[in-house]
Q: What sequence folds into this?
């Protein structure tokens, strides 16, 4: 799943649900439209399909780099993802999330950590959650308690978005196979 936005706090107005919905993808369209793209989700798809792993696409919503996100946007996508994950919770081994790391809503300064926390409450702490972020995502130790692994882009322009998704997906599979046990720290 993906829910991504780079908030430019001095940009006037708000980024609306309509702004996100112009390009949002749901269900099988996520795989169909993002397969082979240089995006985090494209990287997730690459690795999972190569490894014969079944993907359960929920949504991919991206708002670009614009004004503060309207609360209704968070109120739409996060419950949608939670519901989607809850409906297939027994079938899921882990969750791959493409986020940005620099989103802010009208009432939330760290909506991505809040979203991962809400998904975690639905899915439990036994299942790994791997998250991708833009290279300048603004994160603190709170996300470390919720995500199993965090993977940031290494370049700007973002020519490695797909590779970042592939790194996250490979780490997910290695975690599920008990080949690795991810550990994170913030320095």
A:
């Amino acid at each position: 799943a993906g829910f991504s936005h780079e908030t430019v706090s001095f940009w006037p107005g708000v980024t609306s649900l309509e702004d996100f919905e112009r390009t949002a993808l749901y269900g099988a369209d996520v795989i169909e439209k993002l397969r082979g793209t240089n995006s985090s989700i494209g990287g997730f798809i690459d690795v999972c399909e190569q490894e014969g792993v079944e993907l359960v696409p929920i949504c991919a919503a991206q708002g670009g780099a614009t004004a503060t996100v309207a609360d209704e946007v968070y109120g739409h996508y996060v419950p949608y993802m939670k519901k989607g994950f809850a409906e297939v919770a027994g079938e899921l081994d882990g969750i791959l999330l493409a986020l940005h790391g620099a989103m802010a809503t009208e009432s939330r300064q760290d909506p991505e950590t809040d979203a991962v926390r809400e998904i975690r409450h639905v899915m439990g702490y036994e299942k790994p959650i791997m998250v991708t972020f833009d290279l300048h995502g603004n994160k603190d130790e709170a996300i470390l308690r919720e995500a199993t692994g965090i993977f940031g882009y290494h370049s700007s322009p973002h020519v490695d978005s797909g590779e970042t998704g592939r790194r996250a997906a490979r780490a997910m599979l290695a975690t599920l196979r008990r080949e690795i046990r991810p550990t994170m720290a913030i320095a």
